[in-house]
């Protein structure tokens, strides 16, 4: 199977006869686009635990000049995770203090652990024209969408719940009971995926990364991103 990108809109179809092979979509830096609106994209990537968000994100963002917003979490680091590079691992007390001070764009609890996204660095990066990538839990993604109309929500879908179970068990980092809790939560989340702007099925890593690049490129080209001032500057030149 190969990864597929889906949107909630009806897809268009082209004739397959005598057509050239599709080109691989590539992210386009703002500096290379003529009259590119200055504000960056706020891209929110989410999906069920174990679907491979971290692996996708690392390959997708390799060599891109983007701002990856690192989440805070109260869960322990897994094998191979790097504090300060993958997550900010904090105590429940530190997390609560930051939440009470209004320091998170979103925060949520997931299977007994808390996750949150610090908001100050995000606003700064968007204002200087950098795309911002958030990798958050589904509830957190919905919070971001409720507070920001510019958020681009992408749901990373497993090819099946059976495959998701295999990946979770392959981690060998959690008890069977916690895996069952994650799978029960995943069932609920998958059934709500139609609320997201895009769905990328992660059953082939390279294809899924290509799909994420395609989303990024398409969002940059949306007419809604051009303000009246942007358009006026074009006709004035």
UniProtKB/TrEMBL annotation:
<keyword id="KW-0067">ATP-binding</keyword>
<keyword id="KW-0963">Cytoplasm</keyword>
<keyword id="KW-0418">Kinase</keyword>
<dbReference type="InterPro" id="IPR017665">
    <property type="entry name" value="Guanylate_kinase"/>
</dbReference>
<dbReference type="GO" id="GO:0004385">
    <property type="term" value="F:GMP kinase activity"/>
</dbReference>
<comment type="similarity">
    <text>Belongs to the guanylate kinase family.</text>
</comment>
<dbReference type="InterPro" id="IPR008144">
    <property type="entry name" value="Guanylate_kin-like_dom"/>
</dbReference>
<dbReference type="Pfam" id="PF00625">
    <property type="entry name" value="Guanylate_kin"/>
</dbReference>
<keyword id="KW-0547">Nucleotide-binding</keyword>
<feature type="binding site">
    <location>
        <begin position="47"/>
        <end position="54"/>
    </location>
    <ligand>
        <name>ATP</name>
    </ligand>
</feature>
<dbReference type="InterPro" id="IPR027417">
    <property type="entry name" value="P-loop_NTPase"/>
</dbReference>
<dbReference type="GO" id="GO:0005524">
    <property type="term" value="F:ATP binding"/>
</dbReference>
<protein>
    <recommendedName>
        <fullName>Guanylate kinase</fullName>
        <ecNumber>2.7.4.8</ecNumber>
    </recommendedName>
</protein>
<dbReference type="InterPro" id="IPR020590">
    <property type="entry name" value="Guanylate_kinase_CS"/>
</dbReference>
<comment type="function">
    <text>Essential for recycling GMP and indirectly, cGMP.</text>
</comment>
<dbReference type="InterPro" id="IPR008145">
    <property type="entry name" value="GK/Ca_channel_bsu"/>
</dbReference>
<dbReference type="GO" id="GO:0005829">
    <property type="term" value="C:cytosol"/>
</dbReference>
<keyword id="KW-0808">Transferase</keyword>
<feature type="region of interest" description="Disordered">
    <location>
        <begin position="1"/>
        <end position="32"/>
    </location>
</feature>
<feature type="domain" description="Guanylate kinase-like">
    <location>
        <begin position="40"/>
        <end position="217"/>
    </location>
</feature>
């Amino acid at each position: 199977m190969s990864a597929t990108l889906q949107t909630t809109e009806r897809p268009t179809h082209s004739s397959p006869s005598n057509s050239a092979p599709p080109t691989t979509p590539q992210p386009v830096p703002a500096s290379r686009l003529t009259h590119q609106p200055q504000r960056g994209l706020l891209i929110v990537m989410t999906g069920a635990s174990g679907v491979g968000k971290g692996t996708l994100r690392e390959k997708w963002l390799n060599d891109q000049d983007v701002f990856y917003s690192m989440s805070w979490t109260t869960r322990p680091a897994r094998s191979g995770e790097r504090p300060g590079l993958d997550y900010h691992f904090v105590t429940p007390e530190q997390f609560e203090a930051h939440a009470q001070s209004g320091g998170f764009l979103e925060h949520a609890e997931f299977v007994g652990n808390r996750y949150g996204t610090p908001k100050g660095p995000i606003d700064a990066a968007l204002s200087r024209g950098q795309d911002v990538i958030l990798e958050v839990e589904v509830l957190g993604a919905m919070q971001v969408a409720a507070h920001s109309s510019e958020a681009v929500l992408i749901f990373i879908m497993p090819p099946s719940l059976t495959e998701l179970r295999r990946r979770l068990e392959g981690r060998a980092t959690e008890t069977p009971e916690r895996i069952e809790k994650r799978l029960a939560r995943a069932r609920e989340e998958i059934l709500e995926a139609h609320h997201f702007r895009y769905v990328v099925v992660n059953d082939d890593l390279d294809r899924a990364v290509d799909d994420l690049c395609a989303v990024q490129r398409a969002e940059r080209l949306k007419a809604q991103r051009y303000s009246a001032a942007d358009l006026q500057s074009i006709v004035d030149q």
